[in-house]
Records
---
Amino acid sequence: MKIVCLDLEGVLVPEIWIAFSKETGIPELSRTTRDEPDYDKLMKFRLSILKEHNLGLKEIQETIAKIDPLPGAKEFLDKLRELTQVIIISDTFTQFAGPLMKKLGYPTLFCNTLEVSSAGEVIGYRMRCEKSKYSTVRALQSIGFETIACGDSHNDLGMIKAGKTGFLFKSTEQIIKENPDIPAFDTFDELYEALKTAVQ
């Protein structure tokens, strides 16, 4: 049985941290996994910026409430879920994901958790498991699934390469150049057709 594993931010919804960077006027917060392959380093950097500017979970959630899925994302996802099983595997956090999942029709999501103080300060984070995206597709493979993965960033490459088939979507020129063996697409129609072929 085949299962499609999709990244969330940059693929189905805009990057949350980029939106929050624009909302707050703090350019440093616009760094994402497209820019920094080391997720732990990136998160520690983000947390230090939040602390420096006295920003907490409430402010981030207020920004997330204004974010809509990328144009065509929900229709793409609905169509894909009619075709095959789909799981969204993301390095985002449960405290961020709720409003976005509602707008996407509540697909299955595996993500991580923030550590938040009683005052609302984001003081840390807990990954669901080590190398969460790669580990998840390997676990799915261990119970009989053939995984087909799609993402846009450095932290998606492990799960993309772990399966028989995988795709880059709306990725950067640099990541596409560094991974010429992975087909890359920019529209949901193109991606749907590629996934349709892969799951048949």
Note: Residues 78 and 140 are 22 Å apart (CA to CA).
---
Amino acid sequence: MAGYDDRDGLIWMNGKMIPWREANIHILTHALHYASSVFEGERAYGGKIFLSRKHSERLHFSAGELDFQIPYTVDEIEAAKQQVLTANNLSDAYVRAVAWRGVGEDMGVASAKNPVQLAIAAWEWGSYYGDAKFKGAKLDIAKWKRPSPETIPVHAKASGLYMICTTSKHAAEAKGCSDALFMDYRGYVAEATGANIFFVKDGEVHTPNPDCFLNGLTRQTVIGMLKDRQVKVNERVIMPEELESFEQCWLTGSAAEVTPVGQIGDYNFEVGALTREMTESYEKLVRA
């Protein structure tokens, strides 16, 4: 497969449809140097983006957390995303909206004078974890920790927050794993590099409080699905030593969807009935 810079298709960029290979930025773009960038990852099923408007609203929220304003309304972003799908003749696709501080008068840490840019691309993308979606993903335990809310805007979907995700996922893949599990700054179980995590024990579901990491839209959707089934969901502090006692585990995310986990470090989990039910039910929901 060609690299992401060398493909046919069109990308929406600052209000215009641009040939894929021409959708470029200047080397002195502020976001490239200082991570002044926010983004969304979304999936379209049958031509309809699941929770599309919530993603666009969160993009605006994230930009505000990084002290910039996107020069397009939520409605304009919604229309642009549909233009991208139509222009590229895509039905089932991954959609990436990204907003950033561009090149301008400022090239230090401060960048208030630089214009904000927005681009939207879409492409066909299969299962994020490959066959792990059926067999159960294998997770490493990351050496990095999710930071305190006092140190960084942890609830924004901001590019800078993913630096430790990249290094942790690389380390995990080098060990033959699909992903890595983070603890937070207090030592509590937090999330994977790009997905939230759930555990099952004695018929109840347990998931970490999202007080220092993104409360994912897929996470919220799955919690709602569980409550509709009268399954008790415990959003709470989870200690690392509890991993041994859990029976089942899965990850959630727009890219990950609902993916079973078979192993975290030395701990093993079954791909049990509830895990399979949530995987299948989520698939039906997004295509309804």
Note: The domain at 10-123 is CATH 3.30.470.10 (D-amino Acid Aminotransferase; Chain A, domain 1).
---
Amino acid sequence: MTPGHGSTVDGVLRRSARRTPARVAVDYGERSWTYEELDDAVSRAASVLLDQGLAPGDRVGSYGHNSDAYLIGFLACARAGLVHVPVNQNLTGDDLAYIVGQSGSTLVLTDPDLAGQLPDEVRTLPLRNADGSLLDRLASATPYDGPEPRTDDLVQLLYTSGTTALPKGAMMTHRALVHEYLSAITALDLSAGDRPVHSLPLYHSAQLHVFLLPYLAVGATNIILDAPDGDRLFDLIEAGRADSLFAPPTVWIGLANRPDFGTRDLSGLRKAYYGASIMPVPVLERLRERLPKLAFYNCFGQSEIGPLATVLGPDEHKGRLDSCGRPVLFVDARVVDEDGKDVPDGTSGEIVYRSPQLCEGYWDKPEETAAAFRDGWFHSGDLAVRDAHGFFTVVDRVKDVINSGGVLVASRQVEDVLYTHEGVAEVAVIGLPDDRWIEAVTAIVVPRGEVTEAQLIDHAREKLPHFKAPKRVEFVDELPRNASGKILKRELRERFGD
């Protein structure tokens, strides 16, 4: 192997394997991998991929469920100099074809039950559970011993969630992700002694790059689950096998609403991480009341920055439950106006970033890249307020702010108020076209028990100025979300705006 700096994504695993070869790195189902075994599997899988006729720089899609094979496939791409393209396993039809085609993926790693969803012309390789799968070929493959990738080589295209527009592939280098791993380790207090469980989709950057890879870097033992199943999570916590959990607010809400949430012994859970979308303050208050010794961390960011940008630590929550914290180790952040000038503390504006964690732009989208990267800073599209102590509070997405009668209304403020009503299980507030108000503040509510539109509007008016209270309430069985838990407000606007 040619000499290299080792500052690569797969180098993170290699160092841990040399440091603690016999420690268990990953448990998935009935399979268990030590660090030495996992590192060897990655080298063999890299050879398998290159034997498919691929060359460094080629894009390889990954369209599969959570598994140890999914992780091995990603790390094998990194070691072989290939560009990994994670694809939401819930996508089908045109949405799926768009990402595979736009990325130029010449091969897609997939699970057998998903392969039929892919376009006929796409070449596939099963990850597992099939003859000739990636896992099936490891034993007969020769470990890869070729050149190391360069730190500035692309390693992944992270497609944005597409909540407001077509997804864009953020071009991530090895260097960017390794910087992000160190930021996560330091800001989130990750250590080899933690017992993390990873249940959110690995195609999503938060679970993979904020938790699983950083935990592999420090040498922890990681449990991978197929999905965030409450019974399985509670069993692992009660058995002492899991003490660290990341989940978006929608999952924490689901866990808190379970009938056994108040009776199961969850005292073994030491670290609770939330993020990927805004946590309603009333929900966080209920969780903290039930588990007063649990250390809560708020993680905020977006795909383009790897994705971790700011963290609110356990000792920083008091008096600022709505804050997303301060920038992590390798992130510089400002709040600016439309002209890119700093706004005074306490004034809302757009968050902009400068960081070695940032992507190199959007794959094959020069206009979108130029619009997002201006004057040396990345423009996030998030509205926030910074206080005098450097803490940021996200007000809304720029595109989700509601113009009600010429006055701007932050949807989050209205949502937090509605969450204090016992009849609201979940809520999303959007603006809909209105002849009088320009946009009418509209609440889309998943009810808990019996509750009426008038009751919710009255409740909001008791706590908010009338112009911020909903003009209309729609009831639904569930809110549309992507797999990371973000509510797809674009779909709600399309559905109820007609």
Note: The CA atoms of residues 29 and 225 lie 8 Å apart.
